[in-house]
Amino acid sequence: MAGGALGVCLGFVALLVVGTFSAAAGLAGGAGGSKNGTVALAKGSVPALYQGLVQRWGNLCPAINPALLAAQLYQESGWNPRAVSPADARGIAQFIPGTWAGHGVDGDGDGDRDIWDPADAIPSAASYDCELAGYVRNVPGDPTNNMLAAYNAGAYRVIKHSGIPPFTETRNYVRIIRSLEKSFARPQGRVEPSRQAAGAIHYAQQKLGTPYLWGGTGTAAQNGRFDCSGLTQAAYESVGIDLPRVANDQYNAGPHPSRDELLPGDLVFFSDDLTNSRAIRHVGIYVGGGYMIDAPRTGAVIRFDRIDTPDYFGATRVTAEGAAALPTHLPGV
Description:
Largest sheet: 5 strands, antiparallel
Helix content: 40-55%
């Protein structure tokens, strides 16, 4: 951009950032809930190959919903049907063979129960969740939280403690899955604004004009250069939120506002496959007016770009809770 145009844009961004907090006053509390059985999945959040299975089996019983089932599968395997953990948990749902022997089901009705086949493993995960929910149905508290606690610590401990047991691992598991659930669910109503958006935009503004570097995370050894997800990661790290390194994992760091509900600070994503968030290949920070700050490609600099292109995938309103829930590593990946 020419220098004069850049100055105008920077002033425009400053106004938009102030507007973020004005908008927050009008939108706070606007994120609506949805009863189990009516939860729709966010666009592309579940790979198209598995979306029908998750939507169908996620409604198997009142304690689960499609977004919750998706959160569990993502946390367990990152949608990798060949994943194997160090504990020999296998497949997209990460069943231990002994657990599979007792709880695996023939989800596709082809006469076998194949731990590696998502058409069996995804129904088995939903069936196992509902079985656990039945065991703890008389325990006080939220039935879904109790089911998740039983998944992690065993139904006996949930019954014994009359709710989520006082184990850090179990409480973290419940918190993580319920947080990830929000990222896989299509929002019902407006998404609450981010309080960290202004700081993230301010950081990205300071990098305008910096040459792109594939794999760049802004280190001194890289002369402060970034690639697309390195820039967004650093921008949110500057306001105390740790995002994953790659764009397709950053997509799950919070709920997903629609295009007409975007606010400055939202991450915006681009993909050649608009049915699968795992295929996302580019990310930028929305600044308003249909523009983002991004690190586009080799040979370019960090700059303003329009977001309304054929490969626009969707957006994420980053939350500290959502980012903290993301898996740091996935089995077999």
